[in-house]
């Protein structure tokens, strides 16, 4: 009995002890569960950006987690700060965009007002630094009175009013000028309706093409390059009277611009000279196979009757140029337009004034090579130095008032150095004449540059490299000094070209002569000579 009681009591004690142990274990598990639940809540809050205070974390999470949570809080604060900054920047950009739009609109209005004011005041820039009165400009020797009759006389008077001396005067306030201005305004209103279908670039391209065709018809190319044969006298374009269509033969074969001696020593750009083969036939070399050579001796004024329809069309196009608006053109459109207009002004001046009597008169001739663009008379020098190029004074911040107005109205945003190879003055040292289009003007200028370098840069032996004067004048557009100019020429030539290999041999040779002493600058030949496209 006692033994059974003892056994039962021992079992009860074991059960109570086991129960206590289980209760303790359950309590520990409940505390662990509570901590895990709190940690889960903290992590969930951290995930949604609702962090608790750091003092609450010290007893709940390990130190590593505390570090991560504190870094996360810092990152969240930085993100919030950056988002606010982004919002501020967006607001500033929006305000700046609005201000730019307003300023652009104001600038456009100012340009339109300036344009209208200039057209009303007839501010004609005829010189390098301002205005010049050219009332005494002689009439065109190659634009004769080709018809008679009332209707043609009205058309002739209307067209001559645009190119005569009255349109070049800057100040004339009498009653006759007022009447003439009213007539011209009425005529411009008619042309305005005709020009709607013409864009400025297409008009400039058509002008160049038409002038090239006129010179091609006036050109009479002989079978040999020696045009100065005594038994075949040629007509000199400068001998044509401005008041009649009477020509005189040029009997003086010893003028400075046409002597055979001078031509022998002249630079032979683009294969101008012709080589005679064994049969005596003349053969052109180089790029001249794709060009037509027009010289003083090859122009035949007796062929002007072939150009009468083209001359009438030229007058119509020049009238359209007087009222055209170019304020909306893009950079490439402006670049192609002004190159074509520059070449047009020079070509038209040769028709209007004849050829200069000597090379020394080329500069004064370019000052007379003026065209009316949108009511403003601009000559070739103004177009080149004020619109297409940036003068040295402009780079130094010194700008004339008229130059500044002209640049804002017509000028390019930034200069294009390759225009050196596109502006043709009608001299033997000038590049060939081309028609430039707005769509491909960059590639066209690049091709013109490469062809000019290949044709005009010469290497004599291994001790001399000849650079044309035109390139040397504008060397600052391409290099810092003469030595770097040679390196620039080498870098621009095509890899497969013979000239590039020759210059490479010259630069990498073992010659002890400094490169600067190897460079020789060729003289500029201002003799009249055009290279026209076929």
UniProtKB/TrEMBL annotation:
Which Pfam families does the protein's record reference? DUF547, Lzipper-MIP1
Annotated ranges, domain DUF547? 327-453
| Coiled-coil segments on the chain, per record | 12-39, 65-113
Q: What's in the keyword line of the UniProt record? A: Coiled coil
Q: Which domain of life is it from?
A: Eukaryota
* Residues annotated as domain Ternary complex factor MIP1 leucine-zipper: 18-96
What's the name of the protein?
Uncharacterized protein LOC109720029
Q: Per the UniProt entry, what species is this protein from, by scientific name?
A: Ananas comosus (Pineapple)
């Amino acid at each position: 009995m006692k033994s059974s009681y003892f056994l039962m009591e021992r079992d009860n004690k074991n059960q109570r002890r086991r129960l206590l142990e289980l209760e303790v274990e359950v309590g520990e598990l409940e505390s662990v569960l509570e901590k895990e639940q709190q940690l889960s809540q903290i992590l969930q809050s951290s995930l949604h950006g609702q962090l608790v205070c750091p003092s609450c974390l010290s007893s709940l999470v390990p130190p590593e987690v505390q570090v991560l949570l504190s870094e996360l809080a810092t990152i969240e604060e930085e993100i919030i700060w950056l988002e606010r900054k982004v919002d501020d920047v967006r607001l500033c950009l929006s305000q700046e965009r609005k201000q730019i739009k307003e300023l652009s609109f104001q600038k456009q209005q100012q340009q339109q007002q300036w344009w209208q004011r200039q057209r009303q005041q007839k501010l004609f820039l005829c010189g390098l630094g301002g205005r010049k009165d050219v009332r005494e400009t002689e009439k065109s020797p190659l634009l004769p009175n080709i018809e008679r009759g009332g209707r043609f006389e009205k058309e002739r008077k209307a067209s001559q009013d645009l190119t005569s001396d009255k349109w070049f005067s800057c100040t004339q306030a009498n009653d006759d000028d007022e009447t003439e201005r009213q007539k011209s305004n009425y005529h411009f209103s008619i042309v305005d309706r005709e020009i709607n279908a013409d864009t400025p670039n297409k008009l400039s391209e058509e002008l160049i093409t038409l002038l090239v065709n006129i010179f091609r018809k006036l050109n009479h190319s002989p079978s040999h390059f020696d045009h100065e044969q005594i038994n075949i006298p040629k007509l000199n374009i400068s001998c044509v009277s401005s008041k009649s269509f009477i020509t005189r033969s040029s009997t003086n074969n010893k003028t400075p611009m046409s002597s055979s001696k001078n031509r022998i020593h002249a630079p032979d750009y683009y294969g101008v000279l012709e080589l005679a083969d064994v049969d005596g036939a003349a053969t052109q070399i180089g790029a001249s196979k794709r060009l037509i050579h027009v010289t003083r001796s090859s122009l035949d004024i007796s062929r002007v009757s072939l150009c009468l329809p083209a001359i009438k069309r030229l007058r119509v196009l020049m009238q359209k140029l007087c009222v055209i608006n170019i304020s909306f053109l893009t950079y490439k459109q402006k670049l192609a337009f002004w190159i074509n207009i520059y070449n047009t002004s020079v070509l038209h001046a040769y028709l209007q004034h004849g050829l200069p009597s000597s090379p020394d008169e080329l500069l004064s001739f370019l000052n007379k090579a003026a065209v009316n663009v949108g009511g403003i008379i601009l000559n070739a020098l103004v177009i080149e130095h004020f619109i297409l190029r940036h003068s040295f004074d402009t780079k130094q911040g010194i700008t004339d008032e008229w130059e500044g107005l002209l640049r804002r109205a017509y000028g390019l945003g930034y200069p294009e150095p390759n225009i050196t190879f596109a502006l043709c003055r009608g001299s033997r040292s000038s590049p060939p004449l081309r028609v430039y289009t707005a769509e491909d003007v960059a590639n066209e200028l690049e091709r013109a540059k490469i062809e000019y370098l290949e044709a005009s840069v010469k290497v004599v032996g291994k001790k001399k490299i000849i650079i044309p004067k035109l390139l040397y004048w504008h060397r600052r557009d391409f290099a810092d000094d003469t030595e770097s100019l040679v390196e620039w020429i080498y870098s621009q030539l095509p890899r497969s070209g013979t000239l590039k290999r020759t210059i490479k041999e010259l630069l990498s040779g073992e010659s002890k002569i400094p490169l600067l002493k190897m460079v020789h600058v060729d003289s500029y030949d201002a003799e009249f000579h055009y290279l026209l496209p076929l």
